[in-house]
Amino acid sequence: MKTGRYRKDADPVAIYSGEARGRGGTAAIEFEVYTGGAGILRPDGLTWLVVSKTTALPDRLEFDVDAGKTVPPSELDRDIIIRASAILSSEAVWDRADDRECGPDDKTWSIYCAMIRATLEVTGGVHHRRPAMELVRAVVDRRSAGRNYEHRLRDYNNDPTTTLADVRTLFEEALARLK
Asked: Does some domain include residue 55?
């Protein structure tokens, strides 16, 4: 799967990847179905959504999405945050000029790129709206209220008032929110 696995305690019984058609047009998606028909809908570029029921028909797949309920972080999301924290372990490896371009051979990482790299290492894929990323964004939102950042993680990372201690506690706070 392009965006990696969601859980380590269960495997999906089916995975769909492609385009979904709805009233608003088409969108690229990935969709995992677990035993019992519940699942996870991962629209490209949007927050992951909980699917409560899936029905496979001969000519289509129907599913019920609770648009108000986002997918909660899993144990893999905890592992991602722990790994990102380890990646950003010192000033020497912290990229203070994030451009949101993350390469496989990078030797320095911004908050965003550390999260991307950790996600790839832990899950085998990347989706920038994964629950771990959303959790870290929520902490940044709280910390940067009123700063009007265009890209939260990039701008918080690049803010001259942000210190490595702030980055370290960012990950600690995100992990604490998982409990």
From this structure: yes
